[in-house]
Design brief:
7 strands, 156 residues, OB fold (Dihydrolipoamide Acetyltransferase, E2P), 3 helices, alpha+beta, five-stranded mixed barrel
């Protein structure tokens, strides 16, 4: 094989991988960060399958997810370094998600109660307990922005 042919094949493989790999790992079709209601997020997750449950099953790290969960437990704020409001969402009978919402960069969800429904967008980090969601705000995120939504109010 000639050297030019080899470079041509390498280029074709690289282009194919650039298109195929994001689809294989489930985040190429991630919905945009624009405003969405809890119902719209639930519909997008149902239709497109872009959620933390898939990220958990595939043990993915640093992927952007959207979804809706029910507050299962509120935790004390993490006050070391940047302050974070912490709570656990129940996503399914088999999965919970720890949310670390930076309250130095975004508003706190005041009077958060067990049983409330929260829509979310953020960066998912895998762990064996179900995962961690952070970057639920706009500030300091290079190319994306996360948020939390409760009762039609956006916290970002």
């Amino acid at each position: 094989m000639k050297r030019g042919d080899l470079f041509g094949w390498i280029f074709i493989v690289m282009v194919a991988a650039a298109f195929a790999l994001p689809r294989i790992f489930g985040h190429a079709d991630a919905p945009p960060a624009e405003e969405a209601s809890v119902a719209a997020v639930r519909e997008a997750v149902t239709q497109q399958g872009l959620n933390a449950e898939i990220a958990f099953r595939r043990k993915l790290d640093k992927v952007w997810v959207e979804g809706v969960g029910t507050v299962e437990k509120t935790l004390r704020d993490d006050t070391e370094g940047a302050r974070h409001q912490r709570f656990i969402l129940r996503l399914s009978p088999r999965q919970t998600l720890l949310v670390a919402h930076n309250i130095d960069d975004a508003p706190r969800l005041e009077d958060l109660r067990v049983g409330e429904e929260i829509a979310f967008r953020g960066e998912y980090i895998w762990n064996a307990q179900g995962g961690l969601l952070h970057w639920t705000h706009r500030k300091n995120v290079a190319n994306d922005a996360g948020w939390l939504e409760r009762d039609g109010r956006r916290y970002d």
